[in-house]
Structure formats: structure tokens, C-alpha cells
Amino acid sequence: MVPLLLVLLLALILFGAGFALKALWWIAIIVLAVWLLGFVMRSTETGGRKGRWYRW
Questions:
Q1: Distance (Å, rounded) from C-alpha 45 to C-alpha 29?
Q2: What is the DSSP letter of 53?
């Protein structure tokens, strides 16, 4: 009974880690897309230079 519980616990942990990693990949892709859009959509300053679209 104990080995069966250990296998089920391991499967649950691996499933949870796999779901979390997949969610992190989707978040990373969204952040990358927003970051790339920032380069395309940044405004020009009065001197003709491209300004930074972020504050930091």
C-alpha cells in the first residue's frame, strides 16, 4: 500500500510541476511579446531619437 501511495504522490507532484512549468512558459511568451511590441511602438522624442517606453 505504501509503494502505491508513493507512486501516486510522485505522479501528483510531477503533474503539478509540469502544469506550473507550462504556465510559466506561457507567461514568458506573453512578456516577450509585450517587450517586442515596446520596441515597435515607442515614440520619438523632440530630438528625433527614439525614447524608452519603460520607466526604469
A1: 29
A2: S
